[in-house]
Amino acid sequence: MKPFSLLTVLKHRKILEDQAIHRLVQAQEAEHNAQQQLDKNEEILLHLIETLAREQINGIEVIKQAQFEQRILLLEKQRLTLQTILRGKKEETNRAQKHLISRSKDRKIMETLQTKQNEAWQLYLHQKETATLDEIAVIFHNRK
Q1: 124 CB contacts (<8 Å, ≥6 apart)?
Q2: Nearest of 40, 126, 129, 23 to residue 78 by alpha carbon
Q3: Which residue has the higher pLDDT, 28 or 144?
Q4: Residue 16 · residue 110 · CB < 8 Å
Q5: 13 or 3: which carries more pLDDT confidence?
Q6: Going by C-beta distance under 8 Å and a sequence separation of 6 or more, which residues neighbour residue 107?
Q7: Threshold 0.85, pTM exceeds
Q8: For residue 1, how many other CB atoms are within 10 A of its CB?
Q9: What does the pLDDT read at residue 65?
Q10: Above 70 in pLDDT, residue 47?
C-alpha cells in the first residue's frame, strides 16, 4: 500500500511559515516606527533644552521659562512611554523570529520525512519488481 501523501501537510506547513514571515515583517515595521517616534521625540527634546539654555543666557521671562520646563517634562514622560513601547515591540519581534524559526524547522522536518518516505517507497517498489521478475524467471525455467 502506498504511504500517506505528505503534500497536503507540506502545503499547510508552508502556509504557516508564510504567516510567520508576515507576522515577523509586521513586528519589524512596528519596531521601526516606534524607534522613529522615539528618535523624533528625543530630537525635539534636545532642541527644546538647547533653546531654553540659549534663552536663559539672553534673559528669559519667568512664564516663558516655566512653559519651556513644562514642555520638557512632558516630552521626557513621552520619551519614557515610547521607550517602554519600543521594548515591547522588540520583544514582539524576537518572539516572531523564534516563531518563524520554529515553523521553518517544522517544514524542513516534514520535507525530510517526505523525502525518506518516497525513497523507502521506491525501494519497496524496486524490491517487489525484482521479486516478481525472479518469480517469472523461475516459472519460465521450470517450463523447459
Answers
A1: none
A2: 40
A3: 28
A4: no
A5: 13
A6: 10, 13, 14, 16, 17
A7: no
A8: 4
A9: 87
A10: yes
* Percentage of residues in the chain having pLDDT higher than 70: 99
CA–CA separation, 31 vs 86, rounded Å? 6
Overall average pLDDT of the 66-86 stretch: 94
102-112 pLDDT, tens per residue? 999 999 999 99
- Grid look-up 519488481 returns 129
Q: What is the arithmetic mean of pLDDT over 45-71?
A: 90
d(CA 35, CA 29): 10
- Strand, coil or helix: 57: helix
Q: Which domains does the chain have, with CATH numbers?
A: 7-109 (1.10.287.1700)
Q: Which residues does 86 contact at the CB level (< 8 Å), separation at least 6?
A: 31, 34, 35, 38
Separation between Cα atoms, residue 50 and residue 68, nearest integer Å: 11
Q: How far from 19 is each of 51, 98, 137, CA to CA, in Å?
A: 48, 13, 56
| Distance from C-alpha of 36 to C-alpha of 107, rounded to nearest angstrom | 35
Cell numbers for 92: 514582539
CA-CA distance, 85 to 2, in Å (whole number)? 54
